Amino acid sequence: MRRYGLVLLSLLVAALLVAPAGAFTADSLDIAVDESGDAEVRFDYSFSWIEQIAVFFKITAPEQELKSALESYSGKPVTIVAVKSGYSVFDVREFAHIRENGTSRVYTLPALDFTAAEKKLKEYWFAPLIEADFSPAVTTVRFPDGYEEKVFDQSAIPSLSHEITA
């Protein structure tokens, strides 16, 4: 019986060594800003089977890395609202800086850079087995008046501003 276990373990290790690299892919980032400057942030991502195992065993928690990135760039506390397979939702109070400009309001969002999350991922034992793409295929920012700004395939999202006339 012990020999059977060793053979099974050897086959598993061999499969890991010859398996193609897995991938973490940032599919989309959606930021909805309300009138007070608070934002709901949804990050959709795809995992390979390797990351799914790591998440299952709580070796890594992508939502914690994303929360940390949002906090570091916004300077505000971030609340994790939901974590499901393939996406995480966050609440960020006062995410947008609001400046009154006569009869209008200017909403300015901080720049975001997800390359730190990519560096953090490289610290895990399974890092040589995966390729990470933290550049969301599309980032959509929605302002309170319905105006949308889109950024494509960027791991560093620039600061965005939008003026709403009353």
Helix/strand layout:
Elements: H1 2-18, E1 22-33, E2 39-46, H2 49-56, H3 62-74, E3 78-84, E4 87-92, E5 97-101, E6 104-109, E7 112-113, H4 115-121, E8 130-133, E9 138-142, E10 148-152, E11 156-157, E12 160-165
Parallel strand pairs: 1-8, 1-9
Antiparallel strand pairs: 1-2, 2-4, 3-4, 5-6, 6-12, 7-11, 9-10
The biggest beta sheet, please? 7 strands, mixed
Distance between the termini: 76 Å
- Could you say which overall geometry the principal axes of the C-alpha atoms support? elongated
> Could you give the count of β-strands?
12
Number of domains: 1
**Total of helices:** 4
Structural class: alpha+beta
Order of helices and strands: HEEHHEEEEEHEEEEE
Q: Rg, please?
A: 20 Å
On the 0 to 100 scale, the average pLDDT is 78
Which regions have little confidence, pLDDT < 50, spanning 5+ residues?
A: 11-22, 53-59
> Which strand-content bin applies to the residues?
35-45%
Helix content: 25-40%
Describe this structure in words.
With 166 residues, this protein is an alpha+beta fold. Helix content is 27%, strand content 41%. It has 4 helices and 12 strands; from the N terminus they run H-E-E-H-H-E-E-E-E-E-H-E-E-E-E-E. A hairpin with a 5-residue loop joins strand 9 and strand 10. About 11% of the residues have low confidence.
